[in-house]
Each structure stands twice: as structure tokens, then as C-alpha cells.
Inverse folding.
């Protein structure tokens, strides 16, 4: 199939069935993660309000997929892009952001993302700078109206949705729509176990447990939250690779939870959201081979 517009390659992701569990593979989006949908929606919304022009600089604070997605969309649409992230972000990610043409500001990791957010807020007071702010931007969860429709089209019945929580945009955006269509649906959030008692504890499950409360995070949309430890995720990551599934670490955490639900409820239909591919996390294999 030939596409003239690269942005048409965002969305319409496939679902694979693996050991009786359905997995929606968001790695098939153009820059490789579910955040392509969010970046496109946040930027399109600004465009429809005539708030962007060729002199605008789009700012975002992110250490991962959101930055990559925004830098990619800005490259396609020719906006300037400034990504603010902490100085412990991997060299590969920083190189990719720069390759897409983004400027990158690194802030001291000991000061956390909240310090980076403060810088973004201050900069956004300058003319021409627009801070997208995925933690407070309603177009983050609203991007998943489309994701939800895709799921509804593909699955006539659904009992469980398992989804990691970073900003909570994915889980809340999808849950709000799906609960109207599947009345008995249970929505299960996944977070790092290391953060259960102390939100500042370090963990290795990139993308979840952002430790910043989003304005749109609605606890009524999440029926239960399960906590998974980084070591378990690393083991299951390797296990899934052996079966031919190279999935991102947050996806693997979701699959661990889904397998437990499936064991107790073999006849239930379970969907896991897989936010990105395992290519970014190949370092995990260093310890195993
Ligand atoms: N997994 C990965 C790999 C991610 O990059 C993100 C986004 N930070 C999430 C899960 C969580 O998504 P959300 O911000 O929508 O909660």
C-alpha cells in the first residue's frame, strides 16, 4: 500500500492474539509508539485554533516517547521544536530528537521532571513559544477516541483492558469510551511496584509511573491497579523475545498482569495496550546472553 501523507501512518494499529490474550501493537505508529497519536492530536488542535505558524516553537517536557513523537510531527509540519528533559535520558534518545531537528535542553536529573516543567512554563511566557504540557492537555486523552474506535471495531466483546499509567492519557482516554460499549469491562492500571510505597523510588519500567498527577486522571475510570517489579519485567521481556514478541517494558508489565487475570479467568477476553516495541530496551539482554 502506498501512502502520500506520512501522518496517515499514525493509528489503525493491529491487534495480535498471544496465548489467548489480545495485544494492541502501538509500535506500528510512524515514530514507533502510542504517543504519535497524542502528539498529532495536540498539535492538530492548536492548528485548528490558528495558534501555530512557521515561527512557532513547540515545547514539551518528556524523557521518552512523547518527545520523539512531537519532534517527528514538527519535522513533518516544519515547526520548531524544543524538548526539555533530564540529563539521565539515553544518548540514543537525545540523538534521535536532534536528528528530527528538535533542540534539546537537559536539566539535572536530581531536580526531577518538575524542574523541567518550571523551565517550560517560564519559556512559554515568551512570544512564539507554546508549551503542549501532556499532563494537563485534554487533547492527550482525547487522542484515544480514535484508539477506542479501532478497538470497538476489532473486538465484539471485551472483559478486561490492561494498560500502564504514565500521564494516564491512554487508560483514561480509552476507558471512558470503552465502558460505554462494554458494560462489564474492568479497566486495570499498571504501575511499577518500586513506587507503591514511595513515589520517588527508582524503577526501570520506562514510560509508566511518571510521578506527576495529570489534571485529567480520573480514578473512576480505573477499576484496579496492579504493581509489577522491574526484575519481573526484565525476565518476562526475555521470555517474550524467545517467543518472537519484542515488546517495550511497560507492555511487558501489562502482559504479566494480563496473564495472571487469564489464569484466574480463562474464558474472559483481555486486551493489553502495548505502547512501544522492545527495540529501545535491548540493553536488558546484556545481562541475559
Ligand atoms: N508506556 C510507554 C512506553 C510510554 O512511553 C508511555 C507514555 N509515557 C506509557 C506507557 C503511558 O502512557 P500514558 O502517558 O498515556 O499514561
Amino acid at each position: 500500500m502506498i501512502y502520500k501523507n506520512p501522518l496517515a501512518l499514525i493509528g489503525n494499529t493491529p491487534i495480535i492474539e498471544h496465548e489467548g490474550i489480545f495485544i494492541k501493537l502501538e509500535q506500528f505508529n510512524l515514530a514507533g509508539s502510542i504517543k504519535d497519536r497524542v502528539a498529532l492530536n495536540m498539535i492538530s488542535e492548536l492548528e485548528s485554533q490558528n495558534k501555530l505558524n512557521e515561527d512557532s516553537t513547540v515545547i514539551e517536557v518528556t524523557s521518552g516517547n512523547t518527545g520523539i513523537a512531537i519532534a517527528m510531527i514538527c519535522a513533518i509540519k516544519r515547526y520548531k521544536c524544543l524538548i526539555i528533559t533530564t540529563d539521565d535520558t539515553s544518548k540514543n534518545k537525545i540523538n534521535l530528537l536532534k536528528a528530527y531537528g528538535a533542540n534539546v535542553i537537559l536539566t539535572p536529573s536530581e531536580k526531577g521532571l518538575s524542574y523541567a516543567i518550571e523551565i517550560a512554563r517560564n519559556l512559554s511566557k515568551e512570544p512564539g513559544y507554546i508549551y503542549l504540557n501532556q499532563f494537563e492537555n485534554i487533547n492527550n486523552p482525547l487522542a484515544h477516541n480514535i484508539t477506542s474506535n479501532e478497538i470497538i471495531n476489532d473486538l465484539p466483546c471485551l472483559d478486561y483492558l490492561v494498560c500502564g499509567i504514565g500521564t494516564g492519557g491512554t487508560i483514561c482516554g480509552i476507558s471512558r469510551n470503552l465502558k460505554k460499549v462494554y458494560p462489564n469491562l474492568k479497566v486495570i492500571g499498571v504501575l511499577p511496584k518500586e513506587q507503591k510505597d514511595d513515589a520517588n523510588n527508582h524503577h526501570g519500567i520506562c514510560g509508566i509511573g511518571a510521578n506527576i498527577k495529570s489534571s485529567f486522571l480520573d480514578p473512576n475510570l480505573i477499576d484496579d491497579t496492579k504493581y509489577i517489579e522491574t526484575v519481573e519485567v526484565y525476565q518476562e521481556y526475555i521470555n517474550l523475545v524467545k517467543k518472537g514478541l519484542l515488546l517495550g517494558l511497560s507492555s511487558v508489565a501489562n502482559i504479566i498482569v494480563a496473564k495472571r487475570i487469564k489464569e484466574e479467568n480463562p474464558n474472559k477476553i483481555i486486551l493489553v495496550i502495548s505502547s512501544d516495541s522492545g527495540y529501545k530496551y535491548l540493553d536488558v539482554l546484556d545481562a541475559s546472553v
